[in-house]
Design goal:
By secondary structure, this protein is mostly beta strands. The protein is 8% helix and 37% strand.
């Protein structure tokens, strides 16, 4: 598929700004659909292909379902066999979607090149291969490497004990080659992003799989079963060089994003339980540091699990021009847009409410709120209330459309939003003002996963066939001041 007629060699785009200015509009998206806990032993997860082309007669509908052959996989995040990091390699093609499974430790390699509307399973990496060759499990984030290999972060060993590690798959055979890191891994694992221009990779740590698979328990935080550190790695040497403890205001660092411009030595991470966003950056001495730049105040409540409700920041995304940062507050129920032109001082410029746990008349009473004067009402779309709350985000390449799903992780969905487990989650569309800032729910679009033929499901991460703001990593600088030649492969 030719995505950029002027410059395309291999998959993706030459630079982030090339994708931003010249990227094709998304027409379909791939979304893993997870069976709710009550049906877990009866049905299989599947990959849905959803029509997001407003000119189509099937706009907002599921076009195809690729059912998995096993029960209880718990598909979560997905990634690609090749992305813009391989743009200068015409032998590479973005034709395989990688689908790791949190619970089963299985990894599905999906053929999206033969028929993009109807993906099919190309290969299954069974958990035994992951356990035996890499000694790890609970696979999470997938990124392709410029070498043509595929790397997946892992959060545990084969028995769901905590262990931060990275498994490498061969880019052609998809066999497990072993682990990426040399020496020991980290206490916890979750997300990661690499930046060869600065010879660095940074990773986060959610917590112990045994803890989060059992649902959220505050005692697990007190007993050290959740993380609050960033881990910095030497990209060439594959060695951990610095562990940065962010402190008590940074519990559960999840999604981490470098700025897209590859010469930038900084990025942002959302800390879920603490409801904070930290900017991490390279210091003059060559080490890495971080500072809190956004903090969402807790709300004092009655009728909830705790006397104070955190925002629970569960996803963070950056626009390809590195101007805006977006995140979701899965407990409170809002999505926020910040102007990050001043990297150290993000400015709130957009906000939209899409459900959550503080909606008026639903059992939770807010007794003290530093931001709102009254509790929001639960929004409706096409005559139906939005169950759950905004969670996973994906931004169009031009930054004008923000797609949102409402499911986090089935054990936590069951605990925090049982109605969503009963009614199914949704894919929503938020219109974005990219000039002055601003967010507005698009009431013409919704994909309701409560209406699925086999019963309601929990839809999670969103991927475009041509790449997106969270899967692609660039090695070529955009700015002429930074040089125009690709960075050497690591």
């Amino acid at each position: 598929m030719v995505l950029c007629l002027a410059c395309c060699k291999g998959p993706g785009y030459a630079t982030p700004m090339d994708a931003y200015r010249n990227g094709a509009r998304e027409e379909i998206v791939y979304i893993p659909c997870i069976v709710p806990p009550k049906d877990r032993t009866k049905r299989c997860d599947y990959l849905a292909t959803v029509d997001v082309n407003p000119k189509s007669k099937t706009y907002g509908q599921v076009l195809h379902r690729m059912y998995l052959p096993y029960i209880g996989d718990e598909v979560h995040h997905t990634g690609w066999n090749a992305c813009s990091s391989c743009h200068d390699d015409p032998s590479k093609s973005r034709n395989r979607l990688i689908m790791p499974c949190l619970d089963s430790d299985r990894i599905y390699v999906v053929d999206v090149g033969t028929d993009k509307l109807a993906p099919r399973i190309h290969k299954i990496v069974e958990p035994e291969e992951l356990h035996e060759k890499a000694k790890c499990g609970t696979p999470h984030t997938t990124h392709c490497l410029a070498s043509g290999e595929i790397m997946i972060s892992c959060m545990g060993d084969g028995h769901k004990n905590p262990k931060g590690s990275f498994v490498v798959l061969d880019g052609e055979t998809f066999e497990v080659k072993g682990t990426w890191e040399k020496g020991c891994g980290t206490e916890f694992g979750y997300d990661y992003w690499y930046q060869p221009h600065h010879n660095v990779m940074v990773s986060t740590g959610w917590g112990s799989p045994k803890a989060f698979f059992s649902g959220f328990n505050p005692k697990d935080v007190e007993e050290g079963r959740y993380g609050r550190s960033l881990y910095f790695w030497d990209w060439r040497e594959h060695r951990l060089i610095q562990t940065l403890d962010l402190g008590p205001e940074a519990w559960m660092p999840l999604e981490i994003r470098f700025l897209h411009e590859p010469t930038e030595a900084q990025g942002y991470v959302g800390c879920a339980l603490s409801s904070t966003v930290f900017r991490y950056f390279k210091t003059a001495s060559g080490t890495w540091s971080a500072e809190k730049v956004i903090a969402i105040p807790n709300k004092k409540v009655e009728g909830w699990a705790l006397p104070e409700m955190p925002g629970l920041i569960t996803d963070v995304i950056l626009s390809l021009d590195d101007r805006f940062l977006y995140f979701s507050n899965w407990a409170h129920g809002d999505v926020r847009q910040y102007d990050i032109t001043d990297r150290c001082n993000p400015k709130l410029v957009g906000q939209v409410w899409l459900g959550g746990s503080i909606c008026r008349g639903e059992g939770v009473r807010v007794t003290e709120d530093k931001e709102l004067k009254e509790q929001p009402t639960r929004p409706r779309i096409k005559g139906k209330e939005i169950s759950g709350a905004p969670q996973m985000l994906q931004l169009s390449l031009d930054g004008k459309r923000l797609y949102v799903t409402t499911s986090l992780f089935s054990p936590w969905d069951k605990q925090f939003y049982p109605d969503m487990c009963k009614n199914g989650s949704m894919l929503l569309l938020v219109d974005v003002n990219t000039e002055k800032g601003g967010l507005k729910l698009n009431t013409d679009f919704v994909c309701d996963f409560g209406l699925e033929p086999g019963g309601p499901v929990l839809a999670h991460e969103i991927r475009y066939p041509g790449g997106d703001c969270t899967s692609d990593i660039w090695l070529t600088a955009t700015s002429p001041k930074s040089g125009s030649s690709p960075i050497s492969r690591m």
